[in-house]
Amino acid sequence: MATDYDAIFKAYDVRGTVGDQIDADGARAIGGAFARFVASSGAQSVLVGRDMRPEGEEYAAAFGDGAMDHGIDVVDVGLCATDMLYYASGSLELPGAVLTASHNPAGYNGIKMCGAGAAPIGAGTGLEAIKSMAISGPDPAGAKGTRSSRDLLDDYVAHVRSFVNMDALAPLLVVVDTANGMGGLVVPAVFEGLPLVLDHLYPELDGTFPNHPADPLQPENQRDLQDRVLELGAEVGMAFDGDADRMFLVDENARPVSGSLTTAIIARTVLESDPGTTIIHNLICSKAVPEVIAEGGGTAVRTKVGHTIIKQAMAETGAIFGGEHSGHYYFRDNYRADSGLIAALVVLEALSRHPAGLSDLVSDLDRYAASGELNTEVADTTAVIERVAAAFSHANQDRLDGLTVDLGDWWFNLRPSNTEPLLRLNLEAPTPDEVQQRVAEVQALIA
Questions:
Q1: pLDDT digits over 434-443, tens only?
Q2: 175 forms bridges with which residues in the sheet?
Q3: Is 102 labeled as catalytic in the residue annotation?
Q4: Do 252 and 230 form a contact (C-beta atoms < 8 A)?
C-alpha cells in the first residue's frame, strides 16, 4: 500500500484510515520529512508521543525511525495526550509530534506536529513543505540519530495545576467521560489528591472505542455523561475527546454547555485576575463572548477558525487566552497551546467560588440561540457564497473567513470546508424559533 498523501494531509494535521491511506511506511516517510523540516531551523532532537490506538506504537516507532534516519535524535515520551505533547515541546523547546487521530473513530490514525516551543505547524506554517518532502522520499544524513525515553507526566500535572489556586477548589462531585481515550491517563493524574470527587466513565485506554466514539461535539456521545450526572446528582460533567485536548461541559441538570459559553466562563474568570487583557475568539463563537470580554474590561480579538490561526493571533497580540466554539481553549502561559485539562480546572475553580451551580454560573452568559454547525454539500462553494452575499447586500458583511452577515439581532457565517465540497453554516438569533426560521431562509439560498 502506498500512503495517500493527498488524502491524509489536512489543513492542520495528518489524518487518514489505517491500511489504505496511512501505514507504518507512510509514518516513517513523514517522520523523515518532519526531521528535515525542523533541522532547517537548527533542531537536533524531536519529541514523539502517541495515543492509545492499536497501531500507535508501531507508527510512532516508524515515525521516530524516519527522523533518526535523517540524523535527528528522538525523545520518546510514550503514551500522551496532545496537550501533554505541547507542554513537552514548550517546556523543553523542542519540536514534537504525536501519533493520534484525535476524535476520529477506530480505524483512523494520524499525526499532529509542532515546532519548538509548541509553535503551530499547519497549512501556511510548514505542513505543505513536510508533505512535499515526504512525497519526494528520504534524504538521509550521514550519522543516524539516537532514541531515548522520557516520562513527563508528573511535570505536566504540576504545570496544569499551576493555572488555578488549589486552595480555592471545593469538594465538587465531577463526572468525567474520557471515552477510552487519552484522558484516561491524564485526568486521574491531574485530579489525584485534589478535594474534587471524581467519577470516571470509560477510563480504560482502548483505541477501538468499545463504549462510544470519542467525539463529544456530537450530542449522542454525551448521553452517558448526562445520565451519570443526573444519577449521582453531580455538580458538573466533563467530556474529553480522544486525544484529550478538547473538553465539553454538562451542567448539574445534564444540559450541555457550548464551547462558546465555556469560552465566556473562562474569559470572565481570566479578566477578574488580569483586567484589561486581550482575549481571542474565533468568528463563529457566540456574540456573548465578545460582549463578556468587553464587560470585563478586556479587548476581544476576532479571528478565523483554526488552531494555527488562534496561536498566531495570540503571539501577535499578547493575548492571555483564546477560545473556540469547538472546545479548544488556548492559554498564553501554556505556550499559547490548547489544553482541555487546564480549561477544566479553571472552570472548576470558578464553580467552586459559585455555590449556586453551573447552570446559574452560565445563566447570564446564555444570551442567544444557535444553530450549531450545519453542513451542506454543494458543487461550487464560491458561487453559492456569492449568491448568498448578494441576497444580503443590505446587511453588514465581512470575508474574514468565508462570509459573515450581521443583521443586528441575528447573524450567520457561511464558510467552505478545507477538505470537502461542503459549506458550513453557523447562525445565531435571539430565540430557537427564530434560529429555525432564519436557517430555513439561508438554506433556501444555498440550495
A1: 999 999 999 9
A2: 199, 237
A3: yes
A4: no
